Amino acid sequence: MATKNAGQRLAGAHVELVKAEVGGIVDEIKHASAYVGIALGALVVAGLLLAVGMPLFLGEAIFGSMGWGILHGVLLLAAIAVMAGILAARPATSASVGRPFLLALVLGVVVAVVLGLDLTNRAWSLAADSVLPGFDPAWRPLLLAVASLGIIGAVVGLIGGAMSGGGGGAVVGLVGGAVFGVLLGLLTAFAAGPRVGAALGTAVGLITWIGLMGERLARSEFNGEALRNRFWPKRTIDTLKETIEWARNRVPGSTPRTPGS
């Protein structure tokens, strides 16, 4: 009996030792997990700071204003979202992303060079010296650009809207064309300089890329069957059906099925 009690006490002592060690290990795991969580949280915050701060820093360092960094960051993320959506929908849509990017890149470079070298401002200044000699030289290019492009945009929008949408379309085209012309006049009349010209070229390129991808997506036909087949295990199902049919034909007493029955 004494030996039995001693054995029970020894077993109980071992159990208590195991419990104590397991409890200590669990506590160590909790501590380590807490530190790992802190490390991961710090990395996430650092990534967020980098993702938010980098566009602001680049906007200030390259283009002279953090506002450009915010605008370019938003446009870039929007372009990436549209591109990812198109790629995710493949092969249901044939809309391309590479060609719109190249076209947008070329247009952005052209706009950056033209505005950065003040070519449009110089052209409007020369024209305004002849057309509006009695106005203030500082305002002549802007007045001529806004007035002329606003009128041209209104006329073009009026004609295009009337051809596509009748009377209502003509009014919308008139207003939209006039607004677009005025904005284009404002954009091309002032002397942007290299930094602002590069910033505007970058913005125009990103906006063009988004617009061209959207236009390609709208024009392409959506093939829902192709998208369904992408996520449907057709080969596995067909193979399983063939295997079941093969096994059924070899079961004694079963009637073999002919294809199509």
SS elements, strand count: 0
Strand content: under 5%
The CA-CA distance between the termini, in Å, is 80 Å
Percent helix range: over 70%
Task: Detail the poorly predicted runs.
Answer: none
Q: Main β-sheet, in a few words?
A: none
Shape: elongated
Output the helix-strand order: HHHHHHHH
Q: Helix/strand/pairing class, anyone?
A: mainly alpha
Number of helices: 8
Radius of gyration: 35 Å
In round numbers, the mean pLDDT is 85
What's the quick description here?
The protein has 261 residues and is mainly α. The protein contains eight helices and no strands.
What does this structure look like?
The protein is 83% helix and 0% strand. With 261 residues, the chain is mainly alpha-helical.
